């Protein structure tokens, strides 16, 4: 099996888009990555009269969050998730019901074939969407200081530590941060978060490896790191479970008919 390709992140500066690339990437690659800043989406949070409908079950949490900055960032991230999914599924965002698994991972009720991943740092918000399997996204400031000695003892495998040591000193922090975000993305995709021992797996030349550096058969996985917004790194782990999925990702083909009828208000009363 060829390795999975993670889509190039798309910058979407406002709820109105542009969105065509999301559906194109989801159809062509099985996944899509979107990034923005919460300040770009803040005007929509503050001015839309449909915010209660758009947030849905998250509206009470939004209302009871006392810190305004935290509250607005929360709303912007949920609007980004819903608008991204709505663009892919060709439905209004307020028709989507966002829920959370144990540990806080978001998912869409009624769309079992769609996997989501959310990451944010500083002003950046990123969302990953997949119709073929698990997906994990992690973002970090590109200039974030790293403590190499701590990472080498607690995070990196022996093979990764050797690779870092072979680099010029000025290149080591950037490579270390890339490895960290890849590990975070992969653990998120697996639903493990920080519970997964980061020294138990590694990445050599962008491929999944054992602690000693041996390559792992990872044809059903794809990994990538991209610079975004000029000051951040975004890493993604994309999985292809090998299941048959519809090329058309509109709601009519992704949902069972009973749920679709209820959602579109055409169910018998």
Automatic annotation (TrEMBL):
One Pfam family here:
ACPS
Q: Which residues form the 4'-phosphopantetheinyl transferase domain?
A: 134-211
SUPFAM superfamilies, per the entry: 4'-phosphopantetheinyl transferase
Which Gene Ontology molecular function entries are recorded, alphabetically? Answer: holo-[acyl-carrier-protein] synthase activity; magnesium ion binding
Key words, A-Z: Transferase
Q: Does the keyword Transferase apply?
A: yes
Q: Which family does it belong to?
A: Belongs to the P-Pant transferase superfamily. Gsp/Sfp/HetI/AcpT family.
This one is known as: Putative phosphopantetheinyl transferase
